[in-house]
Amino acid sequence: MKIAIAQLNPVIGDISGNAKLILDAAQKAKKLDAKLMITPELSLIGYPPRDLLIYPSLIEAAVLELENLAKYLPSEIAVLVGTVTFNYQAANTGEKSLFNSAVLLTNGEIKQVFHKQLLPTYDVFDEDRYFEPGKTRDFFTLENYSNSSENLAKVGVTICEDLWNDEAFWGKRNYAYDPMKELAAQKVDFVINMSASPYQTGKQKLREAMLKHSTNCYQIPIIYVNQVGGNDDLIFDGCSVVFNGAGNVVYRAQAFETSLAVVEFNSAKKDFISVDFKSINLPESEDEEIWSALVLGLRDYVQKCGFSKVVLGLSGGIDSALVAAIATAALGKENVFAILMPSPYSSEHSVKDALELAENLGIAKQIISIENLMKDYDNSLSSLFTGTNFGIAEENIQSRIRGNLLMAISNKFGYLLLSTGNKSEMAVGYCTLYGDMNGGLAVISDVPKTRVYSLCQWLNEQTVNNNKKFSGSQNLLMTEKQNIIPKNILTKAPSAELKEGQKDEDSLPAYEVLDDILFRLVEKCESLDKIIAAGHDLEVVNKVVKLVMRAEFKRRQAPPGLKISTRAFGTGWRMPIAKKLVIN
């Protein structure tokens, strides 16, 4: 029996458009002789729908669209669709009114409905806010379209988190029961997991280790089907994968791309025996992973929000250089507009480096000097600032001038403004409200400064070696001798050029030190004592912690940023602004 894996990129709330994606995939799967097609979690409505779920009209529309979809699907194939369904017992029981469901469509009708049992409420997940957990661990039986009753496949159905509670693998149990264990007790032939699992660096290796453990433990094959695409701050990497009963990967889908593939289940052997499509290797490095994630996240955010072009400020620094390269890879050079805004504090090489980068990328550029505007601000504020020392207020004026100019261009031409600040800066507040923080999307706000350098170096290696296989390479100018990122940008000391001779390390620890402290504090939630025990200076650690906590009001006003880490500022970071906090 051939089973199709539809790795789809739905648009949240676009129920008719998502139904068409499913229908198109099913028609292709039919031509491949598949008898069952599996879609990701909530594929009909898109994940995560968040508070769209509180509007009953949207759920009613999804129910009607599901019924229509059942009628139009090829009769030769059964399809598992991820969607939202009503809990019709809610009014009498006080339960939540919705289920996160998988619905089996076959022969023009809804044959069976399965509900997600484990509802995550950590990190970016808030499913208990909307859904009632399913109470049964269930399966369906799918005929292998032959005359032998022995060729019936008994298929267990799980949805995302349902497979993430193996006590032996994690060393703890987060929920009262393990759906996989209970399906194994029902002697299912294989288990399907329909997922919308967001990307973070290295996550696929963790997923596969967990799935391999389950297949080894129960000798039950698993088909894991994951959503792909960017939805707001979340990026979904796909990487759908099939494990046979021996715990070996039979098939893996391409990361960060939509796909449709077929695997074959042998009912006699109770296992997956062959594939019609080549299994894809995982990205070779974390830099390749992160680059691909950011390219996909930016492209989908721009397109799903109805934009076609972007604008950004190009300073000659490494952060804006990386964002410009990502934007070019995602959208094409004709859709990226760079603005250079030199001030009296801008060094000659900053302008030269920015121009060289724009030339390397082939993007449009414009120089707008802000020197006269800065003088106008100084004159307007001179009487009020008389008798005070030059300081942060004056330093930030140039950033706010640039922010206003960029927003004016964005408004005038309908371009999406990209913010270029990195995670290190966002963490400690080394950024200016209504200045360099302006924008509709903060592309690298979850990328630490040290990783920014690593990504730029990796990109140069790809282009110098003429590697045309990495994500977005077709949109970048490729020559055997050219670095995309000018070498001077990689080697000069980082500086916001707020005043003459200013450098970042005048205000901050070295980025290698800062990023390690931030990783331990933000992502690992370590205590001060533990961070200091790792070799960091007490005074430096205390300074960094204070900066992080004081900068919360800035981050609350920042544009959404693409999440690539285990804990990003944004959806998964819910820190109060007004607080007194001592981390012991």
Automatic annotation (TrEMBL):
Alphabetical UniProt keywords: ATP-binding, Ligase, NAD, Nucleotide-binding
EC number: 6.3.5.1
Enzyme class, UniProt record, top EC level: ligase
Domain CN hydrolase span(s) in chain numbering: 1-267
CDD domains given in the database record: GAT_Gln-NAD-synth, NAD_synthase
UniProt record, GO biological process: NAD+ biosynthetic process
Residues binding deamido-NAD(+): N396, E425, K554
Residue positions binding L-glutamine: Y122, S197, K203
Residues engaged in binding ATP: G313, L314, S315, G316, G317, I318, D319, S320, T420
Active site residues per record: E41 (proton acceptor), K116 (for glutaminase activity), C160 (nucleophile)
InterPro entries attached to this UniProt entry: C-N_Hydrolase, C-N_Hydrolase_sf, Gln-dep_NAD_synthase, NAD/GMP_synthase, NAD_synthase, Rossmann-like_a/b/a_fold
Function, in words: Catalyzes the ATP-dependent amidation of deamido-NAD to form NAD. Uses L-glutamine as a nitrogen source.
Xref: HAMAP family: NadE_glutamine_dep
Family of the protein in this entry: In the C-terminal section; belongs to the NAD synthetase family. Belongs to the NAD synthetase family.
Protein known as: Glutamine-dependent NAD(+) synthetase
Organism annotation: Trichodesmium erythraeum (strain IMS101)
